[in-house]
UniProtKB/TrEMBL annotation:
Any GO BP annotation: carboxylic acid metabolic process
Keyword Hydrolase: yes
Record-given protein name: Fumarylacetoacetate hydrolase family protein
MF (Gene Ontology): hydrolase activity; isomerase activity; metal ion binding
Protein source organism: Ilyomonas limi
Length: 285
């Protein structure tokens, strides 16, 4: 299944992306896509419910706004420098074990919502990434069993303010957590939808120019290893997001560097996970 949430920001309803051009409203199921939904076998229960009630579900207009495909995950755990080519363009060493940092959940927005360039920003950058959604509580997971903890996958643009991230004192989280810096979706594809997560093309354009064009086959640390590794240091809850890193082609790596300005349009996509588009606007406040 492909889980979506649709409607006005803050008032989204749960739905399903049935085909490329058909969406349905599953509000009658009675649950949104929350931690409790994933904890209580929600994906399988929803699939069973749809077999009986699917034909009764209202169709959702394709003009309706899409929100983030899940509601209020407890955390977003990010992996840094997880593609060799991106480490090289960043002038950083390839890590010997995963680099972990957090992204605030207040950065989450819908897939096609505007990117707001933060106040005092000079170096807002883009990063197309494969994100993994955890399906059940995970602590001290074995790598061989990690697949059992996956609910599904998402498209994520890990926007980053490089001055905040790299040139100011402290951790990377400051440059990763600004409002609108985590557009998710258009949908959450359950893991059965993705036949080979290690062979997905991911791409990103700015104003129609291809900037990133990579493949998850080049991940340094694969998804099962990441789940096992992170779960040694913290408990992952159902609905938590692990975002797995970006390939080469970010603005930081250009010579000279290129950063986003108001009026720019960023488009991105991953095989099987759809595409999204964000228009950049300056902060007003």
């Amino acid at each position: 299944m492909k889980l979506i949430r649709f409607g006005e920001a803050g008032k989204e309803k749960p739905g399903i992306q049935v085909t490329d051009d058909k969406r349905i409203d599953v509000s009658a199921f009675g649950e949104d896509y929350t931690e409790d939904f994933f904890t209580n076998n929600g994906i399988n229960r929803l699939a069973q419910w749809l077999e009986i009630h699917g034909q009764e579900c209202p169709v959702v207009s394709n003009e309706t706004r899409l929100g983030p495909p899940l509601l209020k995950p407890s955390k977003i755990v990010c992996i840094g420098l997880n593609y060799t080519d991106h480490a090289a363009e960043s002038n950083m060493q390839v890590p010997v074990e995963p680099i972990l940092f957090f992204k605030s959940t207040t950065a989450i927005v819908g897939p096609n919502d505007d990117l707001i360039i933060p106040k005092n920003s000079t170096k807002t950058d883009w990063e197309v990434e494969l994100a993994v959604v955890i399906g059940k509580r995970a602590s001290y997971v074995k790598e061989s069993e990690a697949e059992d903890y996956i609910a599904g996958y998402l498209l994520h643009n890990d926007y980053s303010e490089r001055h905040f991230q790299l040139e100011r004192v402290g951790q990377w989280v400051k440059g990763k957590s600004c409002d609108t810096f985590a557009p998710l979706g258009p949908w959450l594809a359950t893991k059965d939808e993705i036949k080979d997560v290690n062979n997905l093309r991911l791409w990103l354009t700015v104003n129609g120019k291809m900037m990133q064009d990579g493949n998850t086959s080049n991940l340094i640390f694969k998804v099962p290893m990441l789940i096992a590794y992170i779960s040694q240091f913290m408990t992952l809850l159902p609905g938590d997001i692990i975002t797995t890193g970006t390939p080469a082609g970010v603005g930081l790596g250009m010579k000279p560097p290129v950063y986003l300005k108001a009026g720019d349009v960023v488009e991105l996509g991953i095989d099987g996970l759809g595409s999204s588009k964000q228009a950049a606007k300056n902060y007003e406040g």
